[in-house]
């Protein structure tokens, strides 16, 4: 089942916005070759705008957020993802061309478990290393806490 082609926007500073130059990128389901969305083609100006906004949020809000508040926010995010797992899974399946059942059974539980793990880590300020903490389909997943604040960073993700 193909998704209708939708125009998407970037979420910067609490607002949905197009790219500064108005350019877009077509998102294609690699399994079918069908276009599923149009997204903004962000450029350096857009990245700088996002970083500036994120730095402001870090400086004015997040920096003083208590570990308990951070934990509650991450747990709430995990709960919302669980509530919408089928929809998110369908979008991810179409985005990467992976079978929906596989995304639902293998990726969604790991995603929310990571959020819950790091929610617990928000209160574990000394940053201890953790071994395998989640098992799915015979695979063990490992994570580690390391207290090394970086502030705001620019990243490019696939």
Description:
With 158 residues, this protein is an alpha+beta fold. It folds into 2 domains: 1-57, no CATH class; 65-158, Aldehyde Dehydrogenase, Chain A, domain 1 (3-Layer(aba) Sandwich). It is built from 4 helices and 7 strands; from the N terminus they run βββββααααββ. The chain is flat, with a radius of gyration of 18 Å. The chain starts with 5 loop residues before the first strand and ends in a 14-residue tail after the last strand.
Q: Looking at the structure, what is the overall shape?
A: flat
Compute the number of structural domains: 2
Averaging pLDDT over every residue, what do you get? 85
Structural class by SSE content: alpha+beta
Tell me the total number of β-strands: 7
Largest sheet: 3 strands, mixed
Q: State the fourth-level CATH superfamily of the largest domain.
A: Aldehyde Dehydrogenase, Chain A, domain 1
> What strand order characterises the main sheet?
1-5-4
In N-to-C order, the SSE pattern is: EEEEEHHHHEE
What is the CA–CA distance across the termini? 24 Å
Oligomer: single chain
